[in-house]
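Contributing new records

If you add data, match the layout below exactly. Sequence lines come first and carry their own label; structure lines follow with theirs. Keep one chain per record. Anything else will be rejected by the validation script.
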Amino acid sequence: MAIGLLTLELYLPLTSSLKEKRGIVKPIIARLRRDYNISVCEADGQDMLSRAVLEVVCVSQNGALAHRQLQNVATRVEQWRLDAELVDYFIELVG
C-alpha cells in the first residue's frame, strides 16, 4: 500500500474578494473529489486573495499507481480553468 500526497500551488489573478476566491477553489475541490475519488483540502493561503494551496491525498496499491494518479490530477488542474493558474506542484509518496 502506498499513500501519495500532492501539493498544488495556485495563482488566482482575477480575485478581488475572498468570496470570489472561494467561488474558484470550491468547484476545483468538488470536481477533484468526484472525478478521482481522492481527499482534497485547501491547506494554506486561506487569507490571501491571489494564492491557494491545495493538498491532495490518495491511497493506492503501489507507489507507481499513486504517483501516476497524482500526476494526472496535476495535469487536469492545469488544463481546467483559466482563472486558476497552476504555479507549481509537488508529489510525495509514503510507503
